[in-house]
Design a protein that fits this description.
Blueprint: E1 3-8, H1 14-31, E2 36-44, E3 47-55, E4 61-67, H2 70-101, E5 110-116, E6 124-130, H3 156-166, E7 170-174, E8 180-185, E9 191-195
Length: 197
């Protein structure tokens, strides 16, 4: 994660840097490590302004605050940013869950009330469910990438560093014995190792 500091009529002190980085550590626990940060600290007349912008995958999140001193302005901006990060994360999760509901049998279901029996007195109510015959599939997109494949054998530690450096969710490599290995980053940010036979 890169943090870029800009001071306008203000010199960025080590104490302010430390408070920004401790606040960003909390946000990193919420969103993961894949974002860059820009911190703009400005003094206008007697107001201290702090603007912290992080750029995760689906657009930037901005925390703005102004106060009488820079420390409180930075803390307010980080609190605002943390609230927005939680909202961003829950919105992303709810969209994922909402899209998966239709495959659990609740989305494409139509029910019809019918009566089965010879006369109205002996009729029994029956609920008929109609499901789609074939689930809709999406078109497959093939992407050929040499950036996700290592050309030389490497150890597991080297492969993990290379996958982080290239910012890849899937990384294919061979270990020094020649076995094919696949590193896969899960949604929660952990790396899984898959050994091919």
């Amino acid at each position: 994660m890169n943090v870029e500091y800009t001071g306008r009529q203000y010199e960025v002190t080590p104490a302010i840097r430390k408070s920004v980085e401790t606040g960003l550590a909390k946000i990193r626990k919420i969103l993961g490590d894949k974002f860059d940060t820009k911190v703009i600290l400005a003094v206008e007349k007697h107001r201290h302004k702090a603007e912290i912008t992080i750029s995760p995958r689906n657009g930037p999140i901005v925390g703005l605050a102004q106060a009488g001193d820079m420390t409180s302005a930075v803390n307010e901006a980080l609190e605002h940013l943390e609230k927005q990060a939680v909202k961003y994360k829950t919105r992303w999760r709810s969209k994922k869950r909402h899209q998966q509901k239709k495959w659990n049998g609740q989305g494409g279901q139509e029910s019809l009330q019918t009566l089965v029996g010879l006369t109205q007195a002996t009729a029994v109510h029956v609920v008929v469910h109609k499901f789609p015959a074939v689930a809709k599939t999406t078109e497959v997109h093939l992407i050929r990438s040499e950036d996700s494949v290592a050309m030389r054998p490497m150890t597991l530690e080297e492969a993990i560093k290379e996958a982080h450096f290239r910012d890849r969710d899937v990384f294919v490599f061979r270990d020094p014995q020649g076995k094919l290995m696949v590193l896969h980053r899960t949604r929660d940010g952990k790396m899984e190792l898959i050994e091919a036979p």
